[in-house]
UniProtKB/TrEMBL annotation, chain A:
<feature type="transmembrane region" description="Helical">
    <location>
        <begin position="142"/>
        <end position="163"/>
    </location>
</feature>
<feature type="transmembrane region" description="Helical">
    <location>
        <begin position="184"/>
        <end position="207"/>
    </location>
</feature>
<feature type="domain" description="ABC transmembrane type-1">
    <location>
        <begin position="73"/>
        <end position="264"/>
    </location>
</feature>
<keyword id="KW-1133">Transmembrane helix</keyword>
<dbReference type="InterPro" id="IPR000515">
    <property type="entry name" value="MetI-like"/>
</dbReference>
<keyword id="KW-0472">Membrane</keyword>
<feature type="transmembrane region" description="Helical">
    <location>
        <begin position="108"/>
        <end position="130"/>
    </location>
</feature>
<dbReference type="InterPro" id="IPR035906">
    <property type="entry name" value="MetI-like_sf"/>
</dbReference>
<dbReference type="Pfam" id="PF00528">
    <property type="entry name" value="BPD_transp_1"/>
</dbReference>
Automatic annotation (TrEMBL), chain B:
<feature type="transmembrane region" description="Helical">
    <location>
        <begin position="142"/>
        <end position="160"/>
    </location>
</feature>
<feature type="domain" description="ABC transmembrane type-1">
    <location>
        <begin position="105"/>
        <end position="316"/>
    </location>
</feature>
<keyword id="KW-0812">Transmembrane</keyword>
<feature type="transmembrane region" description="Helical">
    <location>
        <begin position="109"/>
        <end position="130"/>
    </location>
</feature>
<keyword id="KW-1003">Cell membrane</keyword>
<feature type="region of interest" description="Disordered">
    <location>
        <begin position="1"/>
        <end position="40"/>
    </location>
</feature>
<dbReference type="InterPro" id="IPR000515">
    <property type="entry name" value="MetI-like"/>
</dbReference>
<feature type="transmembrane region" description="Helical">
    <location>
        <begin position="263"/>
        <end position="284"/>
    </location>
</feature>
<keyword id="KW-1133">Transmembrane helix</keyword>
Length: 279, 331
C-alpha cells in the first residue's frame, strides 16, 4: 500500500514539474509585462517583479503613430466576429447538405472538400492576392472576411460528424408533419448542432484573432491593422525601447483567447478529441 | 426502413458515401411514389442549394486560383505590367540558379523533419502519462494544452524571441546555474533549434487527439493480456501502439503539412536569419512575392511545394497500408 502511495506522489511531482516548465514561458511573459521597463532583462528569468508596474499597460496602450491599441483591438474584434459568423452560418448549411441530403455527385464534392481541407492557404495566397487586387479590395477587410462565407472545410466536417449522431427518425417525423428540407434544417438540425457550432465558432475566432499572414499582405494603412499586425510593428527589435510596454501589449493580445479558453474549455477539448481539429 | 438498408449494404465500409449509396434502394419501399426520379431531381436541387456556398468557394477561391497560379508560374508577372509567357524559366532559375531557394528548401526539410516527429513523440508520451493518472488529470491537461491554445499568436513569437535573446530568460537561467550563455538567435547553428523547440512546445492538440485515441481502447484488451502475463511494455507494443496507428496517421499528415507551411515563427522570431539559417520555404516565397513582387517565380515556388506535399501525403498514405491497423480489419 505504502509503495503505491509513494509511486503516486512521485507521479504527481513529476507531472507538476513538467507542467510548470511548460507554462514557464507564458508566466514569464506576464511577469515581464509588470516589471519596470529597464529591468526586464536584469535577472531576466525571475517570475516575480520587484514592483508591479501596471503603467507598462498604460504606456503600451498608446500604441504608435498616434493610433492606440484600442483601435487595433476594435479592428481585430470586427474582423474576427464577422469572419466567425460567416464561417459558422455557411459551414452549418453546407454540412447539412452533405450529411442529410442525397444528391447526384455528392461523393465528388465531398472528396473535393476533404482535399481542400488539406490544402494550405499559403498555396492559394498569391493568386488570391492578385484576384482581390484586381477587384480593388486591397487595404480593406473584404479579403479577410468574405472568403469565410463560403464555408470552412474543417468546420463543415466537424458539424457533419455531429449531424450524423442525430437520429434520422427526427427528420422523417418532421417530413411526415409536412416540413421541407429548409424547415427540417432550421427547426430540427440547427438547434441540435449548437455544440458543434460553438466549437467551430471558438476555433474560428482563435484563428482569425491570431491570423497574421492575411492582414500582413492585404492591409497597408496602420489605422486598419488588427492587433496581431500592430504588435509585430510595435515590437520591431530595432525600434523598441520600452520592453515592459511590449510585453504588456503581448499579454493583452492573448487575453481574449485565454478568457474564451477558460469559459468554453469543454467545447474545445471535445472538438479536438472528436474530430482531430488542429488548434 | 433501417433494417433493409443494412441488409442491402454488403460492403462494410465506414465512409458516409457508402452509407448513402446503400440507402438508395430505400425508395423502393415507399409504394406511394411511383416515379422516384421526380423526387430525386428535387433532392438534387435541394442538395446543391445547401452546398452552393461551398461550390462557389471551391471554384472561385480554390480551383481558379490554383490553376491561375500554375499559369503565372510560367510567366514573369510582377503585378505591374501584363504577364509574359516565359515557359519553364522560373523553374529552371529556381533549380539551377538560385542558391537561396536551395537554402530555404534545406532549412524547411530539416525543420519539418525534426520538429514534426519531435512534437508527435512528445505529444504521445505526455498523452500516455496523462492516461495513467486519474486525479487532477483535467488540470494537467489544461495546463499542458495552454501553450497550444495561444501558440499561434504573434505575442508568443515575440515572447520567444525575447526568451532566447542574449539577455533573455534562458541565458539568465544558464548564468544562474553557472553554465555558459549562448547567443541562441545569433548563431546560425542554434537559431533553427529555437524554432523547433517552439514547434514542439505546442504539442497540446496532438496530445488531446492521442488522449482521445487512448481512451477508445477497450480496457478488456489490457485485462486479457495481463492474465496472459504480458508486461506493460509489451502491452504498449502489442495493444496500444497498433490501435493508435489510425490516430498517428491522421496526426502525422496534418503535422507534416503544417510543418512545411510554417511561416510566422521564422518571420517574427528570427526573420530568416542569421545568414538565412532559418529561412523557411514559405518565408522565402513571401519575400519573393511581396517584397520583390516576383509573382511568377513565387507561384512556381508554391507549385513546387504543393507537389512536395502531395508526394509526402501520398507516400504516408501508401505506407499506412503496412503500419496502420484498423480494428476488425485483419481479423
Amino acid at each position: 500500500m505504502k509503495n503505491k502511495a509513494l509511486k503516486k506522489t512521485i507521479q504527481h511531482v513529476l507531472m507538476i514539474t513538467f507542467a510548470l516548465i511548460m507554462i514557464y514561458p507564458l508566466v514569464w511573459m506576464v511577469s515581464s509585462s509588470l516589471k519596470e521597463s529597464s529591468s526586464v532583462f536584469v535577472d531576466a528569468h525571475s517570475l516575480i517583479p520587484k514592483e508591479f508596474h501596471f503603467d507598462n499597460y498604460v504606456a503600451g496602450w498608446k500604441g504608435f503613430g498616434g493610433i492606440t491599441f484600442g483601435t487595433f483591438f476594435w479592428n481585430s474584434t470586427i474582423i474576427s466576429v464577422l469572419a466567425t459568423v460567416g464561417s459558422i452560418i455557411s459551414s452549418t448549411v453546407i454540412a447539412y447538405g452533405f450529411a442529410r441530403i442525397k444528391f447526384a455527385g455528392k461523393k465528388i464534392w465531398f472528396v473535393s472538400m476533404m482535399l481542400t481541407m488539406m490544402l494550405p492557404f499559403e498555396m492559394v495566397m498569391i493568386p488570391q492576392y492578385i484576384m482581390f487586387n484586381t477587384f480593388g479590395w486591397l487595404d480593406t477587410y473584404l479579403p479577410l472576411i468574405l472568403p469565410t462565407f463560403f464555408g470552412i472545410p474543417f468546420f463543415i466536417f466537424l458539424i457533419m460528424q455531429f449531424i450524423k449522431t442525430i437520429p434520422k427518425e427526427l427528420d422523417e417525423a418532421a417530413k411526415i408533419d409536412g416540413c421541407n428540407n429548409f424547415q427540417i434544417f432550421y427547426r430540427i438540425i440547427v438547434p441540435l448542432v449548437v455544440p458543434a457550432m460553438m466549437t467551430s465558432a471558438i476555433f474560428s475566432f482563435y484563428w482569425r484573432w491570431d491570423d497574421f499572414m492575411g492582414p500582413l499582405i492585404y492591409l497597408s494603412t496602420p489605422e486598419k491593422y488588427p492587433v496581431s499586425l500592430a504588435l509585430k510593428l510595435f515590437s520591431d527589435p530595432n525600434s523598441v525601447t520600452n520592453w515592459g510596454a511590449m510585453f504588456a501589449m503581448s499579454t493583452l493580445s492573448i487575453l481574449p483567447i485565454f478568457i474564451i479558453f477558460f469559459f468554453f474549455q469543454r467545447y474545445i477539448v471535445d472538438g479536438i478529441s472528436s474530430s482531430g481539429l488542429k488548434g | 426502413m433501417l433494417p433493409e438498408k443494412e441488409v442491402k449494404q454488403t460492403v462494410p465500409l465506414e465512409s458516409s458515401q457508402s452509407k448513402d449509396k446503400g440507402k438508395k434502394p430505400v425508395r423502393m419501399f415507399q409504394p406511394q411514389k411511383k416515379k422516384p426520379k421526380v423526387k430525386s431531381d428535387n433532392q438534387n436541387f435541394t442538395g446543391y442549394m445547401f452546398i452552393s456556398p461551398f461550390l462557389i468557394g471551391l471554384f472561385a477561391l480554390t480551383l481558379f486560383p490554383i490553376l491561375y497560379s500554375l499559369y503565372l508560374s510560367f510567366t514573369d508577372y510582377d503585378l505591374m505590367g501584363t504577364p509574359n509567357w516565359i515557359g519553364m524559366d522560373n523553374y529552371v532559375r529556381m533549380f539551377t540558379n538560385d542558391p537561396t531557394f536551395w537554402t530555404s528548401m534545406k532549412v524547411t526539410f530539416f525543420y519539418a523533419g525534426v520538429a514534426v516527429p519531435f512534437r508527435l513523440v512528445f505529444a504521445l508520451l505526455v498523452a500516455l502519462a496523462l492516461n495513467k493518472i486519474v486525479e487532477m488529470a483535467g488540470l494537467y491537461r489544461t495546463l499542458l494544452y495552454l501553450p497550444s491554445v495561444v501558440g499561434g499568436s504573434i505575442a508568443i513569437a515575440i515572447m520567444w524571441r525575447q526568451l532566447f535573446g542574449n539577455e533573455g530568460a534562458i541565458n539568465s537561467i544558464l548564468a544562474g546555474l553557472g553554465l555558459p550563455t549562448h547567443p541562441w538567435l545569433g548563431d546560425p547553428d542554434t537559431a533553427i533549434w529555437t524554432l523547433i523547440i517552439l514547434y514542439g512546445w505546442q504539442f497540446g492538440s496532438s496530445m488531446l487527439i492521442f488522449l482521445a485515441g487512448l481512451r477508445n481502447i477497450p480496457k478488456t484488451y489490457y485485462e486479457a493480456s495481463s492474465v496472459d502475463g504480458a508486461s506493460p511494455l509489451r502491452q504498449f507494443f502489442i495493444i496500444t501502439l497498433p490501435l493508435l496507428t489510425p490516430v498517428i496517421l491522421f496526426n502525422t499528415i496534418m503535422q507534416v503539412i503544417q510543418g512545411f507551411m510554417a511561416f510566422t515563427p521564422s518571420f517574427v522570431v528570427t526573420n530568416g536569419g542569421p545568414v538565412n539559417s532559418t529561412l523557411l520555404y514559405v518565408l522565402y516565397m513571401y519575400e519573393r512575392a511581396f517584397e520583390y513582387f516576383d509573382m511568377g517565380y513565387a507561384s512556381a515556388m508554391a507549385w513546387v511545394m504543393l507537389i512536395i506535399i502531395a508526394i509526402f501525403t501520398a507516400l504516408i498514405f501508401k505506407s499506412s497500408e503496412h503500419w496502420v491497423h484498423y480494428e476488425g480489419d485483419s481479423k
